[in-house]
Amino acid sequence: MRMLVCGCGALDPRSMVRSNVVDSLRFVGHEVLVFDPTDMTGEAALAELTVQLRRYEPDVLIHVPTPGELSREQVHAASQVTSTVAVALHQSTVWTDAPTDLRSLSEDLWHYDLVTVPDRWTFEAFQGEGSFRLSLLEPAAHVPGLVESVLTSRQGVLAAGPVSPEAIDLVCLMLAAGLDVSVLGQGWKEVPLDCRRSEPLASPERGTLLAAAELLVELPVPREIVSCCGRADEEMLVGQDVLDAAAVGTPVVTLARPGLAAHFVVDQEILTYEGLRDLTGLVAMLQTDPERLQVIGEAACTRVASSHRWTSRWTEVFGSWAPQLSSDVDEDVRLVSPARPLEGVTSKV
Questions:
Q1: 31-60 pLDDT, tens digit each
Q2: Which CATH superfamily is domain 2-140+309-320 in?
Q3: Staple partner for 187: which of 40, 163, 206, 339, CB 3.0–4.6 Å?
Q4: Cis link prior to 67 (omega < 30° from 0)?
Q5: pLDDT tens digits, one per residue of 245-288
Q6: Which CATH class is domain 148-307?
């Protein structure tokens, strides 16, 4: 099918929307166009989205609704122009660079043809309001890419997540304990720490960095992201960093919370800590037992490969719900920037 993915960061190869929606949909054989409304006003974004829908007539519009960009009303108005099936894709706090709010799903069910939610309890809570428009689309991982020529033996702790006061405290505690720590995430380049700091990376560099770590520590999700998603700390789902690390066999330590159990068996496939003060002792202890870390990493990798791949998720959603409108796939890459139309693409209609 021909799809138009609309979301902040969709043009950026380092973003979660790009790697987990655009790239994974292309991987399973869909023709994917991309529109990024970042830095556009609401009216300008609506006008450009309408132009793209009229020009290329996609079968499905997938919108990742993030704060401050296109509203559900605007997406609905644009999709009506060409009778395009409009899908709202919610991942809540899972994608920290594209958080989505789960507090107004009732309104989404009125404006979109399909609304996906990332957890079973949200799905069950809203199922009575429109089960035919609601679908469960749990977090998953895309097939990881690796730069094999630079891979070495696993070593050190990789702390992953965006910068926040809580995350800084956690990293500083580990450094003060003498642990070999490096950091991956948004905003860390500006923090003066005596360790390696990396901004978000595109695959395969991201996969390679994750695969080279002995252990990944998932940093706390910033308070502003949790707040804008309408979720409490204990309601946070498994993070994308956790899934991506598990996909390459890297064991993970993360904050204990009920949502983890939907994806991994705690203490067998993932490790947890209760508070910041517990973490440094736990990490130091784990590093003395590399055999246990290897077993946990391999178990998590097996779990992701069997149960948490985007290839299976897309088949579950579009294989049973969306009509099979198109079987031919164009192989060239299609990207839409906010200020210019697609280049080198002609409509099939």
A1: 999 999 988 888 999 999 999 999 999 999
A2: Glycogen Phosphorylase B; (3.40.50.2000)
A3: 163
A4: no
A5: 999 999 999 999 998 999 999 999 999 998 877 899 999 999 99
A6: alpha beta
